[in-house]
Amino acid sequence: MPVPVISVAQMREWEKASWDAGRTEAEVIRQVGKVVAARALSLTKAGDTVLLLAGKGHNGDDVRAAHENLAGQRVTELLEVTSPDSDLAKLESALARRPALLVDGLFGIGLNRPLDESWMAFVKRINHEKLLVLAVDVPSGLNADTGEPMGAAVEASVTLTVGAPKQGLLRTEAADYVGCFEVAHAVGLIPCPHKSDLLWTLPEDFVGFPPRRPATGHKGNFGHLAIIAGSLGYHGAAVLAARAAQRAQPGLITVLTQESVYHSVAAQLQAVMVNVLQLQTPFPPGFGAFLIGPGLVSPELAEMKISVRRFWRDLSEPVLVDATALDWLASDPILKNKVRVITPHPGEAARLLKMPSKNVQADRRAALRELSRRYGNCWVVLKGHQTLIGRDTGDIFVNPSGNPHLAQGGSGDALAGFIAGLLAQPALQADPAKTIRYAVWQHGLAADHLQMTRRNWVVEDLIETLGNVT
Question: Quick one: which of 420, 466, 422, 461 has its CA closest to 443?
């Protein structure tokens, strides 16, 4: 199950409820130490040195527990930090040995006042070294409720938070301090007693998904996806979307594209059927879902605006609209039980909402709600760092996977194609939220896998990897 995004006060209440229920702080610290040590091992290799900074509080206890679990597996140096003035020389000496990883356990969520000058100097010295940093629970000095540094904050490469995400760590302004954000949710606490409409997705949410196909299944059982995409100068978007849709394995895929790029698109696809888009004739029946938008940017497509609005309003099958086609939607109501999806990046969301993109980024949850409300309570995939998935009502899910190297042309086309390829399948239409979340998670997971194994990967590599990483 996904875990709720909570406040610091709610985390404290959760901890107290756990102690009242008979769980012990010592056991939780022991388990957190094991998780932190395992993550430190994954970030380093044999022979590397790991520098652990332990403060006086429970975060320091977590780091000390991690140190015990690292003993004999890595070269470790534990620095007990009690006074920034007297311990700065020890830090300088340790940094001079160029550790492969620094584990930050100086301050946790209990920090309730700005750092003084000596602590700020200590933190800035850590940041100056530009090391790989693993922060335990929260980067030291960062306010876990607001996401703002309290004078200064450690700039982590990875933040491994305990129990559940704290709301400030997901704010856009916190991203450069938090780095890659991960949740250690199974550490011996009782189940979280708090509710939230903002939920953090866990890999466990997708165990057994997609469901196994029946032994007697044939391509007619798994849907026929129509992709309306491609125009002069942008035919590659149609190809990328189609190839990504293939990774979802619908029964059939047909690309309907402009005559000016038909030969370019058709020449690059084999199993995918390609036809010239004819809007003047009745739309052929038999499709199980529609993807509209990748690469549709030519001026002669003005007539598409009317057609896209009609498809969005009238088709009973799932419809996903992406890229330029987003601008052609009208705020028509959608009949109940029709699956409608839009996949804007922050710039497109800003254009649809007629506001600066910085306003979208300042409150991504509110932007998602408003987009969904304007377009008939449709599903919104608000792309970007920690992509959000949700609607005007109900839960909003935060995607944990992905990295900045997804910021390259064609990545969004691949995501749209993969989502649509899954939604074309009747068995996956019953729970569109889970299907969309799975697609977004797999898209980011593929990028994470590639980044660990091949730093110069491109979108074609991403498509090759889609759906094949766990």
Answer: 466
Closest CA to 460 of 244, 233, 231, 248: 244
d(CA 182, CA 161): 6
pTM higher than 0.85 for the full model? yes
> What is the domain range of residue 33?
3-196
Cα angle 419, 420, 425; round to 5: 105
Cα→Cα distances 363→172, 174, 345, Å = 8, 13, 14
AA letter at 219: K
Condensed to tens digits (0 to 9), the pLDDT of residues 266-304 reads 999 999 999 998 876 666 678 999 999 999 986 666 677
Peptide bond into 99 cis (omega under 30): no
Q: Are residues 156 and 251 in the same domain?
A: no
Q: What are the two backbone dihedrals, phi and then psi, of residue 292, each rounded to the nearest 5 degrees? A: -130, 125
CA 120 from chain centre, in angstroms, equals: 31
Question: Of the candidates 173, 164, 121, which has an alpha carbon nearest to the alpha carbon of residue 142?
Answer: 173
For residue 149, what are the β-bridge partners? 142
Residue pLDDT, tens place only, 415-438: 999 999 999 999 999 999 999 999
CATH number at residue 124: 3.40.50.10260
The distance of Cα 418 from the centroid of its chain, to the nearest Å, equals 15
Give me the number of domains the chain comprises.
2
Q: Which of 144, 163, 196 is where one domain is finished?
A: 196
